[in-house]
């Protein structure tokens, strides 16, 4: 019996998130079904964390244990041949039994893409938040620093049973872009790439932080409201949760 670590990419558009559930197609259940076909038995996988419905991943991590009678290269090829096109195993490796995909995590990073043009290309609408309004980018940049450090993020989390809501945000950046490129094409426009790295994230935390920054840029929320929210533990009165389609789990750091 070996402990196998998977690094996974997926387009979350057609899924109800990572975690297996009774109703709705999920990433975890889809991979487990393919493993069941390969090993002819139920195989449970454990992920580094949940991603919500519609959220994508460039480097999700999960592990499973199995009696392996083929090389990891062969297993990877077989597994990818069974998986749908919007899920891809990019790496398999043996790890110690003590390795835990969630408890061993030191940091995680997420990326969020925003398009604030009046019109947004049909080729990227699945991967950006289309918000066609004028934004004060300098004010948004100023607000980012207020989220850095070790803080109680109760005011910026969704409903959760997690009792300890203190997290350390190591980095939170905002990069204006004039084009997004993929394959050999570049789409011109006005975009923002947010990147946040922390020791962990609460439910909806990244989407709430992005939503808060956008409200500040739109002039609907005072920048002082951020500190007030941290002190009170209450969600700012004017703040939306950014839609899931612009969010990517970038990487998990061990």
UniProtKB/TrEMBL annotation:
Gene3D superfamilies: Pseudouridine synthase I, catalytic domain, C-terminal subdomain, Pseudouridine synthase I, catalytic domain, N-terminal subdomain. GO terms for biological process: tRNA pseudouridine synthesis. Keywords: Isomerase, tRNA processing. Signal peptide: none annotated. PANTHER family: PSEUDOURIDYLATE SYNTHASE, TRNA PSEUDOURIDINE SYNTHASE-LIKE 1. Belongs to the tRNA pseudouridine synthase TruA family. This is tRNA pseudouridine synthase A. The gene is truA. InterPro entries: PsdUridine_synth_cat_dom_sf, PsdUridine_synth_TruA, PsdUridine_synth_TruA_a/b_dom, PsdUridine_synth_TruA_C, TruA/RsuA/RluB/E/F_N. It comes from the Bacteria. It is an enzyme of class 5 (isomerase). Homodimer. Formation of pseudouridine at positions 38, 39 and 40 in the anticodon stem and loop of transfer RNAs. One of its GO terms (molecular function) is RNA binding. The active site is at 52 (nucleophile). Its EC number is 5.4.99.12.
């Amino acid at each position: 019996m070996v402990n196998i670590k998977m690094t996974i990419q997926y387009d979350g558009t057609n899924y109800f998130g990572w975690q297996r559930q009774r109703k709705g197609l999920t990433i975890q259940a889809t991979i487990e079904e393919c493993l069941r076909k390969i090993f002819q038995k139920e195989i449970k996988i454990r992920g580094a964390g949940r991603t919500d419905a519609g959220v994508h991943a460039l480097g999700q991590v999960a592990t499973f244990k199995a009696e392996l009678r083929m090389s990891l290269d062969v297993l990877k090829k077989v597994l990818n041949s069974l998986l749908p096109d919007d899920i891809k195993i990019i790496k398999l490796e043996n790890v110690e039994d003590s390795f835990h995909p969630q408890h061993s995590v030191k940091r995680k990073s997420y990326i969020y893409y925003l398009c604030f043009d009046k019109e947004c290309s049909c080729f990227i609408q699945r991967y950006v938040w289309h918000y066609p309004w004028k934004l004060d980018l300098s004010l948004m940049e100023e607000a980012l620093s207020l989220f850095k450090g070790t803080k109680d993020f109760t005011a910026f989390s969704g409903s959760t049973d997690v009792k300890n809501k203190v997290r350390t945000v190591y980095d939170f950046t905002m990069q204006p872009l004039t084009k997004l490129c993929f394959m050999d094409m570049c789409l011109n426009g006005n975009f923002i790439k947010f990147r946040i790295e922390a020791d962990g994230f609460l439910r909806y935390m990244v989407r709430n932080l992005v939503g808060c920054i956008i409200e500040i840029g739109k002039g609907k929320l005072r920048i002082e409201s951020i500190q007030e929210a941290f002190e009170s533990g209450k969600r700012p009165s004017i703040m939306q949760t950014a839609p899931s389609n612009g969010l990517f789990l970038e990487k998990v750091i061990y």
